[in-house]
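Weekly puzzle thread! Below is a chain. First person to post its structure in token form gets bragging rights.
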Amino acid sequence: LDPPALERLRERVRSGHCDLLPPGQIAPMTRIQIARDRALAATATAALQPGRTVLLIAGNDHVR
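Winning reply:
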């Protein structure tokens, strides 16, 4: 992610945990979020086949 997008994601991680995460946990949780999003995208992409619908059910921030 570019720096502005990474900062926005860090802010969403912070606010998504009700401002209760210790500051030192925000960067690691952001990396986990990115890894999970990449895994979701890879799984959905791998399931694509002509004539087949792929439905991903995920939380709002994962979809963004």
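Puzzle host: Confirmed. Bonus trivia for everyone else. The chain has a mean pLDDT of 92.
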